[in-house]
Design a protein that fits this description.
heterodimer; A: mainly beta; 6-stranded mixed sheet; 5-stranded antiparallel sheet; B: 4-stranded antiparallel sheet; about 50% strand
């Protein structure tokens, strides 16, 4: 079946440092969504990318969709303690969403 | 407030027993999903349903069963055939009218089988 891999699995950063997580699919995706799961919580939708090469920003977060629509990245500038959590990408194939393995972000104050 | 309710939050069962996890939504969403979350493995799809009285197997359906008798409800039964049932189970829903609509998740049920 379709596979979506994310790296790194874990990332520890000092508060104020930047953070990036990468998502790679084995097949072309029609779109890609990003979710954030706080510790002990449930995934919450952040954003969706649809077009090849698309870049979207949400305050300190920058999301990018690759030209071939097989990879994506999430970059956080100047991390804050509120950024702590696990970030998942999810690619849509047919009626299913294939989630990446997630990147767990720890921000050290 | 509209949302997805999963109950209970924590569930404990003895090995060999079937257990049913509840998922109810009042968002008027057509599609509902069940995911299993294990550390380091992300979310894996168990079953999904696009419409009442219809559902499809996901990647890890073995040992699970579902029903979709009402639009609002999508209960998941973890049977004794499931080899490693201890996990965090997440229910989600979305409107099927828009093919790019995101998933809305419930708070999850943490199942422990001993």
């Amino acid at each position: 079946g379709q596979q979506v891999m994310q790296i790194p699995q874990y990332q520890h950063v000092q508060e104020g440092e930047d953070f990036t997580t990468y998502c790679n699919s084995s097949t072309t995706l029609s779109n890609i969504q990003w979710y954030k799961q706080r510790p002990g919580g449930h995934p919450v939708f952040l954003i969706q990318l649809v077009k090849s090469g698309e870049v979207k920003k949400q305050k300190r977060l920058t999301f990018q969709f690759g030209e071939a629509k097989k990879n994506s990245s999430l970059h956080i500038t100047a991390t804050q303690t509120t950024d702590v959590g696990t970030y998942f990408c999810a690619g849509r194939g047919g009626n299913q969403f294939y989630f990446g393995t997630g990147t767990s972000l720890t921000v050290i104050p | 407030d509209g949302g997805i309710t999963q109950s209970p939050k924590y569930l404990f069962r003895k090995e060999g027993q079937n257990v049913t996890l509840s998922c109810e939504q009042n968002l008027n969403h057509d599609a509902m999903y069940w995911y299993r979350q294990d550390p380091g493995q992300g979310l894996r799809l168990i079953y999904y349903s696009q419409i009442v009285n219809d559902f499809q197997k996901g990647d890890i359906a073995e040992g699970y069963s579902v029903s979709r008798e009402k639009k609002e409800s999508f209960p998941l039964t973890v049977t004794s055939a499931q080899k490693n049932p201890t996990a965090f189970y997440l229910c989600a829903s979305r409107t099927a009218r828009n093919p790019t609509s995101p998933l809305h998740f419930g708070n999850g049920t943490r199942l422990t089988v001993t």
